[in-house]
């Protein structure tokens, strides 16, 4: 990636902050490979499906392989980069299951194939194996970091709708997309995790127009991700803080950052550097089963249960 432009985090959120891309990844991780498979499983138009598959090939999430010559037909196989998105899908599922129980459709339990029990993933420090939250980490911008470069330039969020045909609603989770699928909402939540509270804080850090900022803050409050509270210095000057639901979104944010820094390297260096305060080690996250505490791998989880 060139110096001075959008950084790895901007690029990753621009790519993964799209519900069709995430849905295609979910089905691909569960074993789907052919255009007809995706078309049958998702209420997606041919034009959108073709566009997303082309994008995923261009971004090296998938590779296209011809399996029939006359007529020419291709299958779409996940690359190592594409397969490495499984932790993101797992923590999104876990967050929605815990914090958005009112969805009309069921969010089924996930079984850890190693211990055989229903589980939720713990986001842990690789060095000391202890679970972490945002408050447990010291965070600083790296050489390619900064707010202006981390806001995604691409806005591909698409609202779910049904095209009929008797298919069940296989949409990605709307509360996740309220944060992850909007460039400014994701930036506002990121700023809140790094300590922004006041309207003026968000505006000065992000360079967002006031009317748009007010709209994003209101939307995040409506979703229960932020809440408005009295200002510490002047109670009349309202502030915003992450709720329990908002704080619980941290693994989604952190895993996206780690994935971005793994696959979209910048010659300038990293976007963010974290230190785990408790053990003092540079922080690298890992997922573990909350029942047996063994580290999770993609093969330990049946992603076909994630709707």
From TrEMBL:
Pfam family, one: HxlR
SUPFAM superfamilies cross-referenced by the UniProt entry: Winged helix' DNA-binding domain (SSF46785)
Basic and acidic residues bias: start-end ranges: 155-164
Keyword Transcription recorded: yes
Protein name: Helix-turn-helix domain-containing protein
Taxonomic lineage from the root: Bacteria, Bacillati, Actinomycetota, Actinomycetes, Streptosporangiales
InterPro entries the record matches: HTH_HxlR, WH-like_DNA-bd_sf, WH_DNA-bd_sf
Keywords: DNA-binding, Transcription, Transcription regulation
Taxonomic superkingdom: Bacteria
Residue ranges of domain HTH hxlR-type in the record: 7-104, 168-268
Secretion signal span: none
Record region (Disordered): 148-167
Source species of the chain: Actinocorallia libanotica
């Amino acid at each position: 990636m060139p110096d001075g432009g959008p950084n790895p985090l901007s690029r990753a959120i621009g790519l993964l902050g799209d519900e069709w891309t995430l849905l295609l990844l979910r089905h691909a991780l569960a074993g789907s490979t052919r255009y007809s498979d995706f078309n049958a499983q998702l209420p997606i138009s041919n034009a959108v499906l073709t566009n997303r598959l082309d994008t995923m090939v261009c971004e090296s999430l998938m590779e296209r392989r011809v399996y029939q010559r006359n007529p020419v037909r291709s299958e779409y196989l996940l690359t190592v980069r594409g397969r490495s998105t499984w932790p993101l899908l797992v923590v999104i599922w876990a967050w929605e299951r815990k914090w958005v129980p009112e969805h009309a459709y069921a969010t089924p339990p996930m079984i850890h194939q190693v211990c055989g029990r229903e589980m939720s993933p713990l986001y842990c420090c690789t060095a000391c194996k202890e679970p972490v939250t945002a408050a447990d980490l010291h965070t600083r911008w790296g050489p390619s970091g900064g707010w202006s470069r981390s806001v995604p330039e691409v806005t591909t969020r698409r609202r779910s709708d049904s095209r009929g045909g008797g298919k069940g609603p296989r949409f990605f989770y709307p509360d996740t997309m309220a944060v992850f699928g909007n460039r400014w909402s994701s930036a506002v939540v990121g700023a809140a995790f790094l300590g922004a509270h006041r309207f003026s804080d968000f505006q000065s850090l992000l360079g967002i127009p006031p009317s748009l900022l007010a709209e994003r803050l209101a939307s995040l409050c409506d979703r229960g991700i932020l809440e408005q509270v009295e200002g510490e210095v002047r109670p009349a000057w309202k502030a915003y803080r992450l709720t329990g639901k908002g704080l619980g979104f941290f693994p989604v944010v952190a895993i996206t950052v780690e994935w971005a820094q793994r696959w979209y390297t910048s010659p300038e260096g990293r976007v963010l550097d974290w230190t785990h305060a408790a053990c003092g080690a540079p922080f690298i996250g890992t997922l573990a089963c909350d029942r047996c505490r063994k580290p999770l791998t993609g093969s330990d989880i049946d992603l076909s249960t994630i709707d």
